[in-house]
Specification:
There is one protein chain. With 205 residues, the protein is α/β, with parallel strands linked by helices. It has a single domain, classed as 3-Layer(aba) Sandwich (Rossmann fold). The protein contains eight helices and five strands; from the N terminus they run E-H-E-H-H-E-H-E-H-E-H-H-H. A five-stranded parallel beta sheet has the order 2-1-3-4-5, sandwiched between helices. Strand 4, helix 5 and strand 5 form a beta-alpha-beta unit. Helix 1 packs across helix 6.
Length: 205
């Protein structure tokens, strides 16, 4: 096997931030990433890549294992979702096993943007991952596209796509081992990805 996707987009569905990912972020990001790579990018996002009759847990795991990097769209509810935390843990495990985020190689395979808060995010996210803060751009509805913030978001996305293209280009050689439970399921138990002092700790899907 080999890689199937350049980027896996990890996000929590919802009527505001989930909708923002699907209607605002995804199309613009893909356009700019295509330009940055100089070719059509292949991005996994659940609403476009999971079809009727698919086993969605298996489809997500396979896509995660065969993606070169992960873009995580973060909010407090992201860390209240078991599946979001599984996706995050799997790519953090890959980084750790392959020597990323180390003195020898301080780069990573996980990139993140924050749409809401961040003060209670897990320690590993706050301490080790440089995130872009896009709170002001997390708006939905036709009115947003008529604001100066929408123009500023496009400037941000163009720069962000350049950075993601560099992560894609330096992705390590693919390994079939990544399709195993050791790389997809067990990491969920190994990384502390709960919110710090959350008011509600019951996980959701």
């Amino acid at each position: 096997m080999s890689y199937e996707y350049d980027v896996f987009i990890s996000y929590k569905s919802g009527i505001v931030y989930g909708r923002w990912v699907l209607e605002i972020f995804y199309e613009l990001f893909k356009e700019y990433l295509d330009q940055s790579l100089g070719r059509p990018s292949n991005i996994f996002i659940d609403k476009s890549n999971i079809y009727d009759g698919d086993s969605w847990p298996v489809k997500i795991k396979r896509a995660l294992a065969t993606s070169k990097c992960v873009v995580a769209v973060l909010s407090p509810m992201y860390f209240n979702s078991e599946w979001c935390k599984r996706e995050c843990a799997a790519i953090l495990h890959r980084e750790k096993q392959l020597g990323f985020r180390s003195l020898q190689n301080p780069t990573g395979l996980l990139s993140a943007v924050i749409l809401h808060d961040g003060d209670k995010f897990p320690k590993i996210v706050q301490d080790e991952i440089q995130c872009r803060k896009w709170h002001d751009y997390a708006r939905v509805g036709e009115g947003f596209e008529k604001t100066i913030l929408f123009v500023q978001l496009q400037d941000e996305l163009r720069s962000y796509a350049d950075n993601i293209a560099e992560i894609v280009k330096r992705a390590p050689d693919f390994s079939n081992d990544w399709l195993s439970d050791n790389w997809l399921d067990i990491p969920y138990q190994q990384f502390e990805l709960d919110l710090i002092n959350p008011e509600h700790s019951q996980p959701t899907l």
